[in-house]
Amino acid sequence: MLSNPEARVQRIDAVGGPWPLHDAQSSRLVEQAALATSAPHTLMARAGEAVARLALALAPHAQHIQVWAGPGNNGGDGLVAARHLHVAGKSVHVVLLADPARLPADAALALADAQRAGVPIGPAPASAVRRADLVLDALLGLGTRRAPEGALGEAIAGINATSAPVLAVDLPSGLHPDSGMRLGTCAVRATATLALLTLKPGCFTGAGRDHAGDMWLARLGVAASDPSAWLCGPPPAAHRPHATHKGSCGDVAVVGGAAGMVGAAWLAARAALAAGAGRVYVGLLDATAPTFDPVRPELMARAAWWLSPAAVIATTTVVCGCGGGDAVREALPPLLSHAPRLVLDADALNAIAADDALAALVRRRAGRGQATLLTPHPLEAARLLGRNVAEVQAQRLDAAHALASALGATVLLKGSGSVIAEAGQRPRINSTGNAALATAGTGDVLAGWAAGLWAQSPGAPGHRIAAAAAWWHGRAADLWPGAAHAVPLRAADLVETLARRSAG
To answer: Which of 13, 403, 456, 488 has the least C-beta neighbours within 10 A?
Structure first.
C-alpha cells in the first residue's frame, strides 16, 4: 500500500529551491513526453497514489474524506486516490461531476477500479458534506480555460464553504495555471495543493498563493526540463573579507522626499544602510525639511545631491523616486544620464510614464552599460505600459517581461508573488512575503535594500539583485511574529527586522 517510490512528494518552501516552474504549454509538453514513454495508466496510478499519500500525511486522523472528481484526467487522479484511501480504511465518498461514458481512457479505468474496490460514488449527500474531515479537489486541471459554470461552479462554492481542510490535485479548480488569476468569480481555496509533474507559476503569484495554500510536488518519476520561469530560493550567503572597510562597500544616494513625504526617502536610506552599503547619502526634494535622521545619524543629508558633478554620480548606486512627488522630474535627467546603477521607484516611475523624453533616457541607459532596476507596483506598471491594473494582474509575468523589454531594464513587479523580469532571462517569482507587508513605506524599504545590496556588488546583474532583495524583504515578513495574527509590519520595523534576519 502506497509504496511506489515514483509517488513520493516533496514540500515546496521559501528556503529550498530555486524551483523550476512550467506554464501550461510547457507542462503539457512534459506530460506528453512522459506518456509517450510510459505504459498506459502509469502516470495516473502514480499521481493518485501521491495524492493519497499526501492526504494521509496532512490529515492522518481524518476518517470521512470527500473527493470531488471532474470530467478529465484530474478527476481520474482523484478516483485513484479515493481507491487507495478506501483500502486504507477511510470512509470515502466520491462526487463524480462527469458522464462516465465520456471520461478519458485512463480516468475511465480509474473509475472502474474504484467501483470494483467498493468506493461509494454518487451525488453528494448533505451528511457527507457535513461529516467530511478532508476534501480532495480533483475537479478541474491544467487544460481548463473557461470559468467554471453550472454544477462545477456550485461544487467549487460548496468546497469553499466547508470547514474541513482541502487538498487540491495539481491546481485549485478555477485558477489559471499561468497567471494565478481566477478564471471566473470563484476558485477553490485549498489548504494545500499537490502539483503533479511540474510546478505551475499561477500557484505562486497573483491570487494563486491565497488559493493554493501550502505547495507540494510529485514529480512522478519524470525529469522536467526547460522551465518557463523560476521560483526564487534564498540568495547565496554573503561573505566580507576581514579587511573590508566602508569605502569598499559602495555608496548609495537616495533622491526623493518631496514636501510631506520625506519619510519615504529616510526609510529607503535606512534600508540601504542596513543592507550593508558603506555610506548612504540622502538628497531630499523638500529643501525645507530637516536634514537629520535622529534614529540613524549615520545617514548623511546632501542638498540637491542630484546636481552633483557627473563623476560623483557615476560612482554611486542611486535610488530615485521614494516620496518624490512631482518634484522628482527635475532630478531625473542627470541621474538617468550618469548613475551606473539606478533603482527607480514610486513617483520616478510615474514621471517616466508621463514623459516620453524621460522614458527615452531610460532606454538609452542599457546601451551605455548602465543598469536600471524598476520596482513598480501594479498601478505604476500599468501606467508605464499604457494598460489598466486588471490587465497587468491577469498576466503578471508577461507584463513584467513587456516592461523590461520596452525600457531595457530589470523589472521587479511587486505584489503577491513578486515577478522579476529582464531581457534574456527566464522570469523569476519571489517565494517569500505575506500580507504583513501591506503597509505604507514597505516598498521604499525594498528599493533601498536593493540599492544597498547592489552597492556592495556593483557588477551583479539586476535580476540577481532584484531576486535577492525581494527574497529577504519577504522573508523578514514571514518571520515577523505578528504575521500569523495579521499584525501589520510597519516599514521602520521592517528595516530592523531585515537587518537582524539577514545577519543571522
So the answer is: 13
Residue pair 349/391 in contact by the 8 Å Cβ criterion: no
pLDDT in tens, 409-439: 999 999 999 999 999 999 999 999 999 999 9
Bridge partners, residue 301, by sequence: 282
Does residue 258 sit in the same domain as residue 129? no
Picking from 350, 403, 417, 343, the residue whose alpha carbon sits closest to that of residue 374 is 343
Non-local (6+) Cβ contacts of 344 within 8 A are: 320, 321, 352, 362, 372, 373, 374, 375, 409
Same domain, 220 and 355: no
Widest CA span of the chain, in angstroms?
A: 82
Q: Are 375 and 443 in contact (CB under 8 A)?
A: yes
Decide if 147 contacts 176 (C-beta within 8 A): no
List the CATH number of the domain containing 125.
3.40.50.10260
Whichever domain contains 455, its CATH number is 3.40.1190.20
Over residues 86-95, the mean pLDDT reads: 96
Same domain for 87 and 147: yes
Quote the CA–CA distance of 378 and 367 in Å, as a whole number.
27
pLDDT tens, 278-324? 999 999 999 999 999 999 999 999 999 999 999 999 999 999 999 99
Tell me how many domains the chain contains: 2
Q: Which domain holds residue 356?
A: 246-503
Amino acid 128: pLDDT: 54
* pLDDT band at residue 237 under the 50/70/90 scheme: confident
Query: Are residues 457 and 397 located together in one domain of the fold?
Result: yes
Instruction: Give the sign of the dihedral formed by CA 446, CA 447, CA 449, CA 450.
Output: positive
Is residue 241 in a domain?
no
- Residue 195: strand, helix, or coil: strand
Judge if 190 and 278 occupy the same domain.
no
Query: What confidence score (pLDDT) does residue 130 get?
Result: 63
Handedness of CA 374, 375, 380, 381 (dihedral sign): positive
Query: Is there a contact between 425 and 478 (Cβ–Cβ < 8 Å)?
Result: no
- In a shared domain, residues 251 and 179: no
- Taking the C-alpha atoms of residue 463 and residue 368, their distance in angstroms, rounded to an integer, is 18
pLDDT at 315: 97
Report the distance separating Cα 447 and Cα 426, nearest Å. 22
- Is residue 23 in some structural domain? yes
Q: What percent of the chain has pLDDT over 90?
A: 89
Strands 419-421 and 410-413, sheet pairing:
antiparallel
Residue 310 neighbours by CB distance under 10 Å: 10
* pLDDT for 243: 87
